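Meet my pick.
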Amino acid sequence: MTIRDAVRVSGPDAAAYLQGQISQDIESLAAGEVAWSLVLQPTGKLDAWFRIQRVNDETFLLDIDAGHRDTLVARLRRFLLRTDATIEAVDDMIDSPLTWPGVVDPTDERQRIRAGMPRMGAELTDETIPGEGGQQLIDLSVSFTKGCYTGQELVARIDSRGGNVPRPVRVLQASGDVNVGDEVTVGDDLVGVVTSAAGDVALAPLMRKVEIGDQVMVGAVTASVVAPAQS
């Protein structure tokens, strides 16, 4: 099963262009090294979350959740003016296994959910603020020491305020099976909607008043808000 699609960015200006567009400090990447990164809208909301590998001084290979490559290509080409770089969809894949804290098999949907690993098109949309994807996403994907990049201001401002965001993605452990689209409620208040589900575990962006350890209703079943699995 293909779970990732690939993009290549190459040319004399590729490194400088990417450094000004994405959240990761690619100037610190050695040849062959892989890191996670975000590319953002000027407002700071998310366009794409992906991995990037430095192949050599002028070539970078990126991969992203399957079905979202066109979004990544279009976004990276948007500001490609008077820049000697080529951005194209390719069949080559990053030669490093996909990993995430708490996940042994990244193709296992239940493990992904239990680890709080967000996915493009589910937890991550063009309305998502990066911090809503979880602290692990920020820690893996954002350099706070590199120079400026598009959308940086919102990321830096939220970090300076302790990472508080309106609707952080939460892991739910339910007492029965739940489904994508189920409403999450606390009392009479609608606090979110399930975006990923596998049996009795789910992910949902929830109002920030809902914290780890709280009890909620997911559709007709009870659920606990739990910390992401780490191993």
Summary: Residues 1-97+136-165 form a domain with the Gyrase A; domain 2 fold (CATH 3.30.1360.120). The mean pLDDT is 95. The longest strand covers residues 46-56. Residues 69-77 form the longest helix (9 residues).
